[in-house]
Amino acid sequence: MTPNSFFHVALKADDVDATAAFYEEALDGTVIERGHADDGEGATAVEHVALEVADKRVYVFDRAPYEATGDVESMPNGLLHFGFVVDDVDAAREAIDAVGAGVDWVMGPERFGDLRIAFLADPAGTIVELIEHVS
């Protein structure tokens, strides 16, 4: 399985707005999306700000989508995961499982707005997101 591109990093912060402001002001980031927990449910019931920084996205969450669904215990602040774009999340999952890479599937695949996403923990425990753009 070959990802199409590296898409984003996701961070967890107690103060989403202050952390997003840092990336805006210090790294010339541009806010492209804000989401509020009250507007979502399950994985989307999170406070978040998405920023474009250089040529990638940085997402700042108050809690990870997989925390919101109860798939994992509370995560510490800092780096939550990073994401790769793939053509087909299901096919990517099958290809990864076929390799016998010793991963644990954390969440998904499931719909997240105009995306299908799945999260896995690699053998070292680092969480990786697979992202499929759907309409």
TrEMBL record:
Coiled coil (UniProt feature): none
Keyword Ribonucleoprotein: no
Family annotation (InterPro entries): Glyas_Bleomycin-R_OHBP_Dase, Glyas_Fos-R_dOase_dom, MMCE/EMCE_epimerase, VOC_core
Source species, domain of life: Archaea
VOC domain sequence ranges: 5-133
Entries under PROSITE patterns matching the protein: VOC
GO molecular function list: dioxygenase activity; metal ion binding; methylmalonyl-CoA epimerase activity
Keywords in alphabetical order: Dioxygenase, Metal-binding, Oxidoreductase
Keyword Metal-binding applies: yes
Gene3D superfamilies from the UniProt entry: 2,3-Dihydroxybiphenyl 1,2-Dioxygenase, domain 1
Record GO biological process: L-methylmalonyl-CoA metabolic process
Protein name: Catechol 2,3-dioxygenase
